[in-house]
Amino acid sequence: MALQDLCNFDGIFHESISTVRHVMASGKKKMCNYAAGVALSNSTSLFHFYIPVAEYLDESPIQFGQISTTQSLSRNPSQELFLSPSSLPASFPFAASQSVPLPFPMGHGTTTLAFMFQGGVLAAADTRSSCSGLVACPASQKILPIHSHMVGTTSGTSADCALWKRILSRELRLYQLRHGRRLSTSGAAKLLSHMLHPFKGTELCVAATLCGWDGGELDDRCYDHRGSETDHSEDRETTKTPKANLETTVSAPSEKVSLSKTQSSSFIKQQCSKRKIRFSGPSLFYVCSDGTRLEGTLFSVGSGSPYAYSILDQGVRWGLTVEEATSIAREAVYRATHRDAYSGNFVDVYHVTSKGWTRRTREDLKEEYYREKERKKLERERQGTTLSE
Amino acid sequence: MKDYHYTGAVENRFSPYAFNGGTVLAVAGEDFAIVASDTRLSEGYSIHSRDSPKCYKLTDTTVIGCSGFHGDCLTLTKIIDARLKMYKHSNNKTMTSGAIAAMLSTILYSRRFFPYYVYNIIGGLDEEGKGAVYSFDPVGSYQRDTYKAGGSASAMLQPLLDNQIGFKNMEGVQHVPLTREKAVQLVKDVFISAAERDVYTGDALRICIITKEGTKEETIPLRKD
Fold this sequence. Notes:
The complex is a heterodimer. By secondary structure, chain A is of the alpha+beta class. Chain A has helices at about 1-5, 10-15, 20-25, 55-60, 75-85, 160-180, 185-195, 230-245, 255-265, 305-315, 320-340, 365-389; strands at about 110-115, 120-125, 130, 135, 145, 150-155, 205-215, 280-290, 295, 300, 345-355, 355-360, 365. Helices cover about 40% and strands about 15% of the residues of chain A. In chain A, α8 (about 230-245) packs across α9 and α10 packs antiparallel against α11. Chain A is globular. Chain B contains four helices and twelve strands, in the order ββββββααββββααββ. In chain B, the strands form three sheets. Chain B has a five-stranded antiparallel beta sheet. In chain B, a hairpin with a 2-residue loop joins β11 (about 205-210) and β12 (about 215-220).
């Protein structure tokens, strides 16, 4: 609740809540009425969340950051739209004044990547945070854990990414408390995408990949379906193969899948009566502040992504072992930092499995350059001796 | 930093920001922290004041250095002081350095689309008594460091600090932990160098040394030209 306490958000969204709810809520403004199964205090649905800068979308005296140039709408209608009782603040074209450029540059430029394989999801990123030519921070953290079974890679403005990840963690935690299970990666990606939607057209820049492992806790409601675990393994295989066929070759996923099934009990498909069958396993989504939300098995984001893609497209397969996958991810970031000026310094690698995420120690890529130079020198010497013979 | 060689049509637009110069620096040691700033307040080619330090004491264990646009620096420190008081009255304890840093991040981000043009660096002691430095960008992204320079001469000072305190890019050097006396001497030398090469830095240097006994302040003269 940190952001809400900070910015006195009560004033902003209570106008937009319908009168019935308002009457109910006004009696106990800050208390959450969980007995009714629904929290009444500030949000009755996932879409009633506090956006810390919402008031500046239409109140800012100078239109900073509004980069859209539509001239048609005047400001008054858009203000009414904002306060209308809709669940999401309606996205409206901003008033047509030119934006004043900010006197300082924001942090940009990065290489992040994430891919799925049989052992879970692997995410890797460099650690350089640059501000138009100056390295603002050589050791920043671009992969942020969201909860125990999800990490997100960040690219774009560092402040935006840090804050929106924090908001996402909070909302996911609230969802978990209210519904007794973690929200799937697909749902989390949708939530993030909807949260960023009102800021479309502004200079907010967030390009994140959410890497998570879905399915885990058993509710009591779903407990009786646990007995059908064995026949679900074939179903799971069929749901997995279309995903795996997207970019990687399928190499005997069934043994690998059943192997990881014995690791934890979390592979049970939750078949609650009102819900449809949900996928359980690793999951990877790309969410961007311009509205993109994509599911996939391999993503690389940032200024260094073309270089990373060349390494990844060559080497990533479904059947990789954890060590092979880690070394490909590391290699991809290393090559990207070599060629891209805005990426560099260290490389972070995170691995998400059914047990949660683990982090590899941060590695200094400077050492890697020297090691590679040594290797090349040895090779040249060896070639020189064979040629001379 | 205006361009005075106009060749075509020129549009003059009001900018709500001004750049008032100044450099801040913070270093964290084992049981101390140092926050230092110059005291020159300038705008364009003029100097408004030679005695306007940029370190502000927040609590007994935390000092913040703010450089950039002086108007925003003043407002921001007032807001932080008010929030500290509110916290003290409702929680009956002073805010720790880490908590102040987290709070400042949200304060800065609440103005994401009309930012405070301030480069902040917080220096203080954490709950265990170790030195802590938190550096911010104008919209609230922050992290904990061992040393950081911010402001107009930051690009000149940061590499020097990387080398002398972080022992980066040096081969075969023993990594000695930084003592307080050596840190203070280093800060003085570093600012003297900055005053030589940056026009917005100079006049005097204000150093705040934070230990568990409290905060001590020192003022050293720098180049006045």
